Each structure stands twice: as C-alpha cells, then as structure tokens.
Amino acid sequence: MTSIHRDPKGESTAFTKGAGSEVLKRCTRVFYENEYILLTDETKRAIKKQMNDFASEGFRVLAMATKTVSNEPENLSENVEENMTFLGLAALLDPPRPKVETAVQEAKNAGVRVIMLTGDHELTAYSIAKKVGIITAEDQKVFTGKEISQMNDKDLTDILVRGESVFARIAPEQKLRIVHILKSMGEVVAVTGDGVNDSPALMEANVGIAMGAGGTDVARESADLILLDNDFTSIVEGIKLGRSTFDNLRKFVSYVYTHNWAELVAFLVFVLLKTPLPLLVIQVLAIDLAMDVPPSLALILEPPEPDVMMKPPRKTDTRLINVSTLLRGLYIGVFAAVVAIYIAFNVWGSSGWVLGQSTVSDAVIYARGTTVVMTGIMVGQLGNLFSTRTSSISAFKLNPIRNRWLLPGILATFAILATIVYMPFLQPLFSTAPLLTMDLLFLLPIAPAVLVMEELRKMLKRRLSPVSRVNPSNTPNQ
C-alpha cells in the first residue's frame, strides 16, 4: 500500500508498506545512519536474512520504503513504486490464540483436515502451522503462490491429497482454485476469511465463515456464517455440536420407534394368536404421552458424547433413519413386549383363562393384564433411555447428572404412569387396574435387562469396528 503526503514546504513524499521481498525489489537506495546510500547486493542479502529470521520465529514482517514524488497529479502513477528508498522492517507478533493447538488436534482426530492459506511469508506460515499442529513433519514443504501458479490441477491435487498442506504468499484467485479442487475431490469445504479478496472463496465453499470482529462487510455478506469471536476453537466446537445434534436426533428416532414396535407386537399377538387384546388404543396413547415427551426432550438435550470427535465424518448422503436404527428399535421393542405379554398371560391365567380363548371372564383381571403390558413397555423404555444416551461407548461411563433433564424426564414419565394406573377416577378412562407388588417385581427387571442387552451389543460393535483416529487424507466428505 502506498500513500502520498504533502509537507508544509509543499513537497510530496510517497510512503509504501508491504511484503518484504516485494518492497525490497522496488528499492535502489537505503536510508542508513541518516544517510541515503546505494542498495547493494550485500545489503539486500542482509535485509533478506533479517526478514527470514523474523519470519522463522513466527513474526509477520512488513517492509517500508519512501520516495519523493512530483506534485503534479498526472505524474502520480504506478511509477511511484519504483526507485524507492528502503527504510526498514516491522516485525509483528500475532501469536495463536490459547487452545488453538488443542482444537486443531481435535479436528484432526475427527477426520477434519486443516489447511492453511495465507498471504504471509512462507517461513512465518511454517512457524505458525508448526506451533498449532497443522503440520507435524519437520521436512514439510510450504508451497508459495508463485509455485502454485506454475502447477497444473493434477499436481495441485497430488499435494492436497497428501494430507498436511500449508500455502503462503497466496493470491485470492489461487485460494479459489484450491477450493474448486477440494470440492472436485468430494470434500466438504469450509473457508474462513475476513477481507474483500476472500469473498470469492467464501462464496464457492460449502460453508463460508467470515470473521465478525474486524472483518470487512463484503466478506460477511459473502459468507454463510459469521464467527463473532474470530476464534478457530469456536469452529471446532460448532462441528462438535453439529455432530451431537445429529446423533441426538437419531437417538430420539430410535427411542420412539422402540415402543412403537412394542405396541405393534401387542396387536400382532391379538391377531395371530386370537388372544384378548393385550393393549388398548387408549393405553397406546398413554404410552405415547408418557414416553415421547419428557424422555425424548431429555435425549434431544443430551450433551455431546465423549468420543463424538473421535469418529470419522459422516457421508453427505447419511440418513437420519437407517436400517440399523430400525433394527435396534425392533429387537428391544419385541423383547419388552414379549416379556410384558407373557406376564399378562399369567395374570389372566389366574382367573382361569387359557391360550386360545378370546376373552377374559373377569373384567378387572383383564384390565390388570393390559395394564401389565402398558407398564412393561414403559419400564423397557427406561432401560432403553439409558442405553440410547450413547451410540458406541458404554452407558455406564456417563454421569447420569451430566444431562440435567434426564432425571426430570424419568420422574415425569413414571408420575404419568402412576397417575393412570392408581388414580381411581382415571382407571375407567384408560381401562387400567392397580398392579400388585408381584406384578411390579416381574416387570421392573425388564429395564436392566434391556440395558444389559444394549451394553453387550455395543461391546460387540466396538470389538468388530473399534473407533480409531481417522486419517484425514483418506477420509472423504470432510
């Protein structure tokens, strides 16, 4: 950048600041010890060495130069930045924010590649990238914009495929080109930027992230998101919360489908075995009310799992409901329903009912049997609720109070259940009857049984496909 100033004597002077190498090659003299002397090759080498020393320590280096210019406006052209006098260097230390190194490592563990694209000196870029863990190899090469301009797309793709990548002295059109190539590789690309020149890359990226503090209006208007604190750790936290939200929605679906399967089994038993109807429609509504609202809200608000950032990225076409989600709900629902219906059959049997009869002679015993099925499904969902909190790690590793909505959700569920079962004025409405202590002793073990079954399934899953730190260079859709 060059600005021209007129002093009180009427003389005009141009002052230029910019990248050290760019400013230096426009200079023919140097201001040294209050004298203007010729800029020799030896002096240029000394200046370049100092620039490299600053850059290798992580400083951002600016060079300054000056030149006396004509006062005539028509003479103020691009020739101003020629035959200038070198004034000196400014080394600016802009250290990485705290916890950035941890955030970069967390992103790598999650299969997210962090690529540095900067206009700074290549030694500065290398120093910063090394400090925060973007590059780990001692011999990692930093590619400059000049080198990129001489590469074809295949060569640049080969560099990007390798994994750790740092680009310095890069121009806006080169940043846009890199985004194009990454997208053509099947990657999901997020780009950060704060300047006007960043806007093309921000618009081309799958997710453009503009800096909210100190960024330009053009960058903010070109982006999809605005990072208010300009902190990379906030981006990683956003990834973590995004993954957690998707997981929680899937947990919600799995949880709800489980008691739906259980309800379906009760009706299938009625149709196929020609038994009395084990579960009435009004009781199905009671189950849906008690099991869908309080516990489901608790699942939606479940904090991220400890290993959420140790899993590889999902593919872009991943569905919320998949076969494994449905099968999980199926086997748990069938188990809870079968056990509850078996207990109900025994309750009905106490009045003389036998399999093959379509009615139960004692209306109270019949109501007690259907209440057993309704309660058994709800108790089974209690075990399902605890197991659903995690997708792969053991549920026993989670503190129950880390989700402050879990206990209120459980209490609300069983408060609804107790009200429906034991309040006399609601029993005719929901066709329920009070359960005996013996009934509860048979029903309550369904919850820990479901939890143990799920723990065994997750243990087998961990052994067959253990979660490992993914290799970002081989993971698509990042």
Notes on the structure:
The structure is a single chain. By secondary structure, the chain is α/β, with parallel strands linked by helices. The protein has 3 domains: 2-93, Calcium-transporting ATPase, cytoplasmic domain N (3-Layer(aba) Sandwich); 100-234, Rossmann fold, CATH 3.40.50.1000; 243-469, Up-down Bundle (Calcium-transporting ATPase, transmembrane domain). The chain has 18 helices and 12 strands. α11 (281-292) runs parallel beside α14 (363-388) and α14 (363-388) runs antiparallel to α15. The protein is rod-shaped and about 115 Å long. Residues 467-478 have low confidence and may be disordered.
Strand order of the largest sheet: 1-2-5-6-3-4
Uncertain residue segments: 467-478
At the fourth level of CATH, the homologous superfamily of the largest domain is Calcium-transporting ATPase, transmembrane domain
Number of domains: 3
Number of E strands? 12
Architecture (CATH level 2) name of the largest domain: Up-down Bundle
Helix content: 40-55%
Q: What's the CATH topology label of the largest domain?
A: Calcium-transporting ATPase, transmembrane domain
Name a few traits of the molecule:
single chain; 478 residues; alpha/beta; Calcium-transporting ATPase, cytoplasmic domain N; Rossmann fold; Calcium-transporting ATPase, transmembrane domain; 3 domains; six-stranded mixed sheet; three-stranded parallel sheet; 18 helices; 12 strands; 50% helix; 13% strand; rod-shaped; disordered C terminus
